[in-house]
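Dear colleagues,

As part of the handover before I leave the project, I'm documenting each prediction I ran so the next person doesn't have to rerun anything. This entry is a single chain, and its sequence is reproduced below.
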Amino acid sequence: MKKSDFYFELPQELIAQEPSEQRDHSRLLLIGKHSGSIVHKHFYDIVDYLDAGDCLVLNNSRVLPARIYGIKKDTGARVEFLLLNNRGNDTWECIAGPGKRAKEGTVFTFGDNDMDGEVLEVLENGNRLVRFTYQGIFLETLERIGDMPLPHYITHELKDKERYQTVYAKFNGSAAAPTAGLHYTPELLEKIKEKGVHIAQITLHVGIGTFRPVKAENIEDHTMHYENYSVSEEAAQTINTVKRSGGKIICTGTTCCRTLEAASDADGFVKAGSGATNIFIYPGYQFKCVDELITNFHLPESTLIMLVSALSSREIVLNAYKNAIENRYRFFSFGDACFITDKI
């Protein structure tokens, strides 16, 4: 299968630059998983399409304000750092730009002298290992001086950092938000619970590789990045109980979907524990655990639209995207949502 099979033309003006005024007032496109039927709703209507006994799965990872700006102590030159992986001992793997200013041994200061960083090593992939020194608690310092690592296609400044977090975000570690969850409010989640829908929270820390384009023309030749995940005993038990009783497992976002498919056995039952996954889901994949998916609209030729097409079909998904474009839906991270479901 070719990556060009997943291409579509998207008008630039449909790329959402800001979140909707109210989280659950985003639009919602219902897509019949097998029928290809299309229904136009708003996200707050999602409760009408979840049944008692279903399980709604949420990713409670919290985005780090991982974009920080350093000033070279010797020249005053400015360099942007994006924190990727915590290597321990206050050392992080970072993307630095412009890289030529971040050579081994270079020392930077961040914020109002809140933190210093020394480049320990330039890695083979061009990333830098940087050791930070600071007073107090690292995450508190980062909250004070860091910016949200918004995707490159969002050019507007984010006024409220919390709008790039889900309302249930708990565990720091993501370099990007699990954006399908941005549409929920506490009140909407309460309505869903009151209907008898079970809610399970898992954690997958979204890596910056989620934005890495597919370069191989044959998609089977693409290698996915690894991301760390954790499934608690409570979440696994909730999901497995619903599975045994015949309820639907409904993932909020591709991150939840990848986690459950990586953590489940051949019969679709989830094993509690932590791990790392680079699972690549594209058409032809046989889902073991996940039945339905709530997700945003994804980039052309991305691994994410390939995953969505695997759950339904490429033809159904691309037709739904065509319909969404014609109806002026908002795309990508701050955009509208779709629900791939058997219920229509």
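The mean pLDDT is 96. The first strand starts at residue 27 and ends at 32.

All the best with the project,
I.
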